[in-house]
């Protein structure tokens, strides 16, 4: 739409409001303007006990900084079917950038179709695109095994959705295409990589019948993320002709996410289960599986819930061609490549390839419309070392002294959620 | 302290949830269909008020939270508590998918709104006189 036609639109809509006012009992209707501003805020405090490591930024020092945020979402409607929406986010964590999280043009030709173009949130899993809106889910932190792994939260592109309700079901289909360029977070921490995913596309199916909801999704893209920490080693291996080893450190190739989620809701209780599986073409990070089960009870304004979550990486597959050099032992004169070989296998030994279980008990009190207080206590336990959640340095690789330890800890969190 | 908390917890069981369906809890789902005949099933009404398209070009209109008719509608048709419904709409709104139904202050105003707006659908207590211009789509007895 050109700027010149804007005054016409404004005139039209003022006319529309006058018409609406005229035809409706004036005391009754909340008149909606062309500009609608809404938003959400959360203040979350957390404290980790039982370890000297950090998890999701939390340590044995109580912190309000890790998840506290404020977002404002203005929507300007040009017509009934065309609007532009932005979302400005201020985040207290050092790992998250503040700024424009969202900016897209929205077009609804009718009530079944919806198209969007611009900077959008990634609809990976059931709560991925509302992960900052704590009010939208029962926990303070959605299960990390599903929601904190190797993910990015936004992409640039287009998305289309179709919804239809039959006599006893409701169906929503959503498809998108675009690219991602920005920071990659692993277990809530920004890692030193230059994230880039092209040809990013996916399909999300939401089906609901009576009290049962099913969400199935498939997402794939070509990952071109550069891992700076690995480049010197990779170049050195290339130079000595160890091309298989060099290319096994590549992080270029297809990345695929599949997800299945099931939910069951009644007035007094709810049950949720979600399973996700990530596969890549990289030898250094072949696949990751995560899932959780949640059961909750509603007692008037209170929700009490319990969650079990688990995740496991698949085994990594180092190349064998450097094994003879490693086996020959340290000898600077006769075996000058020993340190390079040792470095290569050390990288493989320090990749996250472990697993973790979490047990969470929580309470949520909806003490007012659009406001809730929450309390979560989570017991986190590594079932194999290097789960990716404990003690992972910014490089994305484990350091020597944490390589084979299994950690456990208890995370206490208190949160206040508000939407407006 | 403990005793007060317990008393408070007990008080919070909303009577609406415990009451059986009686005449005073009956509601009707009413629309301005411009004279066209239409009836819906409970699940269709639920889907409509949760934002799905039924293909009839109907626009749901709600009463505000804490309104008694709304509480009955939540219990008997939506099947979720008010806070769960608010959470659902927060998710829909802040993921850019859907906006919650427009809210009208009270039942008489809702009735006026329905009469004035073809395609609008609302829920009203069964004992409210429905004008001829509106069509009853569904009734909880």
Which features characterize this protein?
A: mainly beta; Porin; B: alpha/beta; D-Maltodextrin-Binding Protein, domain 2; 40% helix; 16% strand
Write the layout of secondary structure elements.
The complex is a heterodimer of chains A (420) and B (141).
Chain A: H1 6-23, E1 35-49, E2 69-77, E3 82-91, E4 99-107, E5 113-121, H2 144-147, E6 154-165, E7 170-182, E8 185-186, E9 189-190, E10 193-209, E11 212-223, E12 226-227, H3 231-239, H4 243-247, E13 253-265, E14 269-280, E15 287-299, E16 302-313, H5 323-327, H6 338-349, E17 355-368, E18 371-384, E19 408-419
Antiparallel strand pairs in A: 1-2, 1-19, 2-3, 3-4, 4-5, 5-6, 6-7, 7-10, 8-9, 10-11, 10-12, 11-13, 13-14, 14-15, 15-16, 16-17, 17-18, 18-19
Chain B: H1 2-11, H2 15-18, E1 27-31, H3 42-49, E2 59-62, H4 68-78, H5 82-94, E3 102-103, H6 107-116, E4 120-125, E5 135-140
Parallel strand pairs in B: 2-3, 2-4
Antiparallel strand pairs in B: 1-4, 1-5
């Amino acid at each position: 739409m050109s700027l010149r036609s804007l005054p016409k639109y404004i005139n039209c809509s003022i006319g529309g409001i006058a018409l609406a006012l005229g035809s409706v009992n004036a005391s009754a209707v909340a008149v909606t303007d062309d500009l609608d501003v809404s938003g959400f805020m959360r203040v979350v405090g957390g404290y980790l006990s039982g370890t000297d490591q950090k998890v999701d930024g939390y340590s044995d020092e109580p912190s309000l900084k890790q998840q506290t945020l404020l977002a404002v979402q203005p929507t300007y409607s040009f017509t009934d079917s065309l609007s532009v929406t932005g979302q400005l986010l201020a985040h207290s964590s050092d790992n998250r950038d503040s700024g424009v999280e969202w900016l897209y043009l929205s077009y609804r030709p009718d009530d079944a179709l919806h198209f969007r173009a611009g900077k959008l949130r990634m609809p990976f899993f059931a709560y991925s695109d509302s992960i900052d809106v704590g009010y939208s889910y029962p926990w303070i932190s959605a299960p990390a095994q599903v929601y904190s792994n190797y993910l990015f939260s936004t992409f640039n592109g287009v998305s289309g959705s179709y919804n239809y309700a039959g006599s006893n079901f409701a169906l929503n289909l959503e498809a998108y295409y675009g690219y991602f360029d920005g920071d990659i977070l692993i277990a809530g921490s920004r890692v030193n990589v230059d994230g880039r995913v092209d040809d990013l596309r996916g399909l999300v199916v939401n089906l609901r019948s009576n009290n049962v909801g099913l969400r199935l999704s498939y997402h794939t893209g070509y990952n071109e993320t550069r891992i700076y920490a690995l480049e010197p080693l990779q170049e050195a291996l290339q130079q000595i002709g160890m091309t298989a080893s060099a290319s096994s450190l590549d992080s270029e190739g297809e990345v695929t996410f599949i997800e299945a989620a099931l939910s069951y809701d009644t007035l007094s209780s709810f049950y949720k289960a979600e399973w996700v599986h990530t596969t890549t073409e990289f030898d250094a990070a072949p696949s990751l599986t995560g899932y959780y089960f949640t059961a909750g009870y509603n007692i008037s304004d209170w929700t009490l819930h319990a969650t079990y979550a688990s995740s496991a990486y698949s085994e990594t597959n180092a190349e064998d061609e450097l094994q003879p050099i490693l086996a020959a032992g340290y000898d600077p004169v006769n075996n000058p490549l020993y340190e390079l070989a040792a470095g290569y296998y050390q990288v493989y030994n320090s990749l996250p390839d472990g697993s973790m279980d979490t047990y969470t008990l929580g309470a949520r009190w909806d003490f007012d419309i659009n406001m809730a207080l929450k309390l979560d206590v989570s017991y986190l336990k590594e079932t194999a070392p290097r789960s990716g959640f404990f003690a992972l340095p910014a490089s994305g690789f484990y350091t020597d002294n944490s390589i084979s330890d299994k950690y456990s800890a208890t995370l206490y969190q208190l949160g206040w959620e508000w939407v407006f | 302290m403990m005793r007060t908390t317990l008393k408070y917890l007990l008080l919070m069981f909303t009577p609406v949830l415990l009451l059986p369906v009686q005449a005073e809890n009956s509601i009707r789902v009413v629309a301005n269909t411009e004279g066209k005949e239409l009836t819906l099933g409970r699940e269709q009404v639920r889907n409509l008020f949760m934002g799905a398209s039924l293909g009839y070009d109907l626009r749901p209109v709600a009463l505000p939270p804490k309104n008694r008719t709304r509480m009955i509608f939540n219990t008997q048709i939506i099947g979720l508590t008010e806070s769960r419904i608010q959470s659902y709409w927060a998710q829909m709104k802040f993921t850019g998918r859907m906006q919650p139904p427009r809210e009208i202050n009270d039942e008489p105003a809702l009735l006026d709104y329905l009469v004035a707006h073809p395609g609008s659908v609302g829920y009203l207590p069964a004992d409210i006189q429905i004008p001829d211009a509106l069509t009853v789509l569904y009734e909880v007895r």
